[in-house]
Design a protein that fits this description.
The structure is a homodimer. The first copy, chain A, is an all-alpha fold. Chain A has helices spanning about 10-25, 30-40, 45-50, 55-75, 80-95, 110-115, 125-145, 150-175, 180-190. In chain A, helix 1 packs across helix 4 (about 55-75), helix 4 (about 55-75) crosses helix 5 (about 80-95) and helix 6 (about 110-115) packs across helix 7 (about 125-145). Chain A binds a DNA duplex through helix 3.
DNA sequence: AGATATAGGTATACAGACCTACCTACTCCG
DNA sequence: CGGAGTAGGTAGGTCTGTATACCTATATCT
């Protein structure tokens, strides 16, 4: 089987430790030794569960994406109208921002990672997929609201996703997640005319 | 005096080389040796002109900020109305995006650097100042357009700056600067109602 | 011209990176 | 039970990074 949870599998402990350190100090700024020390496991265990640091990074990115999806699903549960489903995406982003580790909020972990990965790194693909998925989640309700104008729905989805991304980038710079609330309010404003 | 241009001062050669390498490979991904080799300069010269790599990074960030300001000034020359002055800021960002080195476009160098710098790094302060300055450049014409509603002008400036930032972040991910054109069009749309 | 500062170039200290090796111990499973 | 797989722990190997030292050569300034 995959891993029927022995105590708390070394794999999970490593991923959790890597998540905190990668987010706080950056990927390049985090050494293998720091990860195993924080995880409280032997270095051997790391290389039993991951083929390399790049593999650990890749799984870290996937995990953060999955983490956000779960938060979004939870928010979508409570959303009824298309308009609420759009704002739920903004709420999910804000929820995700609460995942700050000890060094404080530093913006979107996926975006930060992409900024530090080289252009050909496979990890960037994960980040691109994430952003596409978010945009699709914005587009679906908009298409419902504007069934006769798909072009406008597409432009609006893109605009909202830019807004979200920009708010996240600025939030990371300032170290606060207030910008995500602002962005949500802006999105709500844009939607009242529909 | 400062440095009355001997031939092409080592300081400039180093900054130019660092700019290309930092932008293409990231700051952490760029070693001192690579910088001096590309600059065609001795390592001694680096440590004569800069106290450390951190100093080089800091001056790199300042230089990119100044570079953008120059591009913006040029664009503002041709702008007459407040509306044009706002769109000129978007144009300047697009101009700046054309500063791609051999590895292609990778988004806003300042934002990428901030993503990879730790929370307490002084370099982040430079990036914050840059973003504040951009937002101020957006706010001034909006205050002219909305002299009786400064609150709305402020919100709009912030929204436009989020739009710009988000487009830049996405553009860096995709490796293309088309998103900046989209953002300019969105901004133009938002301004027609004023 | 002579003094001072800057530059080239190589060698090197010193730390930290990623990864592997070896040995021991526990646990799972037929 | 006995063997295989996973885990802990330490040690080391190789590479790369930042920064300095030393010596020579060139350029600038009085």
């Amino acid at each position: 089987m995959e891993s029927p949870q022995k105590t708390t599998s070394a794999h999970d402990k490593l991923l959790r430790a890597a998540a905190a350190l990668f987010y706080d100090n950056g990927i390049g700024g985090t050494g293998i030794d720091a990860v195993v020390q924080r995880a409280g496991v032997a270095k051997k265990s790391l290389y039993n569960n991951f083929t390399s640091k790049a593999d650990l990074v890749s799984q870290y990115l996937e995990a953060r994406h999955a983490e956000w999806l779960a938060l979004n699903d939870a928010r979508q549960e409570g959303a009824q109208t298309p308009r609420e489903r759009i704002l739920a995406v903004f709420d999910a982003y804000r929820d995700h921002a609460e995942f700050a580790y000890e060094r404080g909020f530093r913006g979107c972990g996926l975006l930060n990672a992409a900024a530090e990965l080289t252009a050909d790194d496979p990890g960037r693909q994960v980040v691109r997929r994430h952003k596409e998925e978010v945009e699709a989640l914005l587009l679906a309700p908009l298409s419902e609201l504007l069934p006769d104008d798909p072009a406008r729905a597409g432009r609006l989805a893109r605009q909202l996703s830019f807004l979200l991304e920009g708010a996240m980038a600025r939030a990371g710079l300032e170290g606060s997640s207030d910008q995500l609330l602002e962005a949500r309010a802006m999105a709500a404003d844009l939607l009242v005319t529909l």
